[in-house]
Amino acid sequence: MVGYIIRRILGLIIVILLASLITFFLMHAIPGGPFDELKMPLPAEVKAQILKKYGLDKPIWEQYLRYIWRALHGDFGVPFQSPTETVLSLIARVWPVTLQIGAITILLSFTIGILLGILSALRQNTWIDYLVTTLATLGTTVPNFVIAVWLMLIFSVTLRWIPTGGWGEPKHLILPVLAYFLAPTAVIARFVKVNFLEELRKDYVRTARAKGLPERTVIFKHVFRNALVPIITLLGPMVPDLATGSVFIEVTFRVPGLGKFFYTSAFNRDYPMIVAMILLIAVLWGITYLITDIVYALIDPRITFT
Amino acid sequence: MSKRLVVYLLVLVMALSLSPAFSAVKNSAGKILPPDAAPLEYQVLRVMSQPATTLDWFISVYKRTNEANNYFGEPLVRLNKNFEIVPAAAKSWSVSKDGLTWTFYLDKNIKWTDGTPLTAEDFVFSFQLAADPKHGWDFAWFYSPIKNWDKAVRGEVPPSAIGVKQGKDPYTLVITTEYPAPYLPMMMLYSTPLSKKAYEKYGPYYNNDPKTSVSCGPYVLEEWTKDKQIVFRINKNYGGRVKPYLEKIIVTFGDPGTSAFKAYLAGEIDICGYSNSQIFTPADLEVIEKDPELSKQFHQGFGDFRTFYIGFDCYNPPFNDLRVRRAFAHAIDKEAIVNTIIKKQGIVAYGFLMPGFPGSNPEGLKNIITYNPELAKKLLAEAGYPDGKGFPTLDMWVRADLASPTVVAAANAIGAMLKKNLGIDVKITVKETKTFMDALNAHKLQFYLVSYGMDYLDQSNMLGIWVSTGRHAWKNDRFDKLVKEASALLDKKKRDEMFKEAEKILVEDVGGIFLWHQTPGALWKPYVKGKDLEPDKYGITALHWPGIEGVGTTIFSIYISKDVLKYRK
């Protein structure tokens, strides 16, 4: 198992290097730069100085090698859009905001999703089941930014219970989490329902019932455990997804999180931030998949490390 | 003291205490609030802006907040709601007979919050910084008329060689120009200086932290929470002319296009919309139109005298042929576009200068380019493309930051008109702003829809962008000569005539097809009041350019009336 993990980590390092290389060259291939010429062209000398100031006057390969060298020493540069701090301190400042929303969303969507899934499986073809199906359809088909606008119009504009956006107080968490949580909850609820129904039809359940075990024991002691194991496959990709935030949710609710910076960095040609965030995502996805694979192997004895 | 005297005195004191002068409430800067003003704790204005990197003009023009800026320093002059310049840091100014030397006499009462007086040295320092190519200032083209400015920007002479110097004493600032520039005082609207002392001590971003921020303007920095908000607090020791009413201005960061209107509806901000741009979507405007209360709060004005137009690459085929450009101009029904798509957000443009802008000439230009599909067809056939045959398929680029649903709808309508009237296929592409501007500035854009709004109120600014060294791939020697000469002319009558001729050439030679002038709207709550929000000399009530920026007088005339008690909890 140790050998497997080492191999995977080495693979991850290669992936990260490739991701940084591709990102670096792609972003430099796009026209424009970290200067604005909305009105009139800047004098060539000024433009040259701006490029020099940001170290962009060197050949791209040299810039890349310098970047990697500095990154290996923990220096990811200074974000163009916030020159009074470093890329690392900016990420350290804004990431906890996104993580907070992500963690609450995961917790809520798993709790409520599992609960709804079980309820609709046990009460199949009743109003609860129809309600869950409707919610699941809504959650998977309506994009979260549309839900965000609905929520804002209902709770902020019409009822005026919750602010339209902002950050710093618990009430600012409500709408982003609500907008975020519907889709994963819907997926989880449907997934749990299908698994539960599948398990309920299996022989061991019939045997347990035939043995005269109370229904509660059958459901919670036997079916529950077996039906929930595959949910790990859902949790895996959801973690890095929610941990890096959503551009739409954060921009709509004015949340100063990491997701918003994907958007602002790309539009401002904030090269140091773009590369740093791509690397962060690559690392997060890599590690999450590694952990998911390990946990999977530990749970399911049929899977071995090769 | 006799009893009678005591009674008289008591009566006098009571009478005085009832008089408005005594009962009036003063704010922290000692300014008496209007009688209908809400209590002091309500004198807070809440607005929304895109996040900023700096608040200082001389650090970066494009990375500042939208409009809520220029509060920490005194520009030499300010602009009032009638677009007239009024004294600010400069009590008065004079110009030499040859029109080349401007002397500004500074107000000695203005001091920085660290106790240092505001002197010519701060202005000289700020201008030299902006001219220094090492600073890489993003508006370095702006002060071109100043002596040696362009040379300094190109690094040919040191920044100290520019024509901005201290005069006979620290309170006299002398600006010399390369050629007579009668519009120089108007340009000096944008001259809010940095504190030399603070810059040298704390660096370019000294105004980003209340601990190091220094102000000689009407407000000081109370809070700057990154990505959340900026809070400006009234400067109790402000010695200038525009003492404000508002105790605080809170600027919440957000994407105005996405969030501002909803925040306004939810009562979280007091003003929505800017003086120079349109943030309302057609759907927002429908909501406003249908709501009688909101309709009353919506005011449209001149904006920044912005004109939307179609531009061409006139250096290469097919648009190097005037007949092709004229065919296009005659094939577009501007009236229909404005009446059906732009609606209240604009008026038909006959030239580049919007009615109300100095020297504008809509009547004189109205009949040069009229909607005439037959003539358009004929011209195109003469140019070798009968019914559009052989004409390449066009890709019309629309700049992303201007591509509101309304503008995109207008672009599509233009495409449809060109197909119907000329048989030419036009594809519409919304192009990311930086990519668009890169191509435009490099004169590599074949066909595009864009706009321009003024930087200062003078024809030399708006028409100056059309000279061949500017951003457009269009060249007309007579136009270049006229604009360059008129810009430097002191004789106003002759100057106006020359600019009129130049604009006529621009329209006749179809440097661009001028479509509509934008009339942006802003919403403000009924409790937001102030003299500058009342009708101007044209009878128009609007948030006039430069909006709530500190280089205009509007923000300092605004107060919160007692009506606020019905709205804010």
Task: Describe the overall structure.
The complex is a heterodimer of chains A (306) and B (569). Chain A is 74% helix and 0% strand. Chain A is mainly α and 306 residues long. The longest helix of chain A has 36 residues, at 87-122. The model of chain A has no long low-confidence stretch (mean pLDDT 88). Chain B has 569 residues and is an alpha+beta fold. In chain B, the strands form six sheets. In chain B, strands 14-18-13-17-15-16 form a six-stranded mixed sheet. In chain B, strand 2 and strand 3 (85-87) form a beta hairpin. Chain B is globular, with a radius of gyration of 26 Å. The mean pLDDT of chain B is 93. Chains A and B meet through helix 2, helix 6 and helix 12 of A and helix 7 and helix 15 of B.
Secondary-structure-derived class of chain B: alpha+beta
Rg calculated over all Cα atoms of chain A = 24 Å
Succession of helices and strands of chain A: HHHHHHHHHHHHH
Number of strands of chain B: 21
What attributes characterize this protein structure?
heterodimer, A: 306 residues, mainly alpha, 13 helices, 74% helix, flat, B: 569 residues, alpha+beta
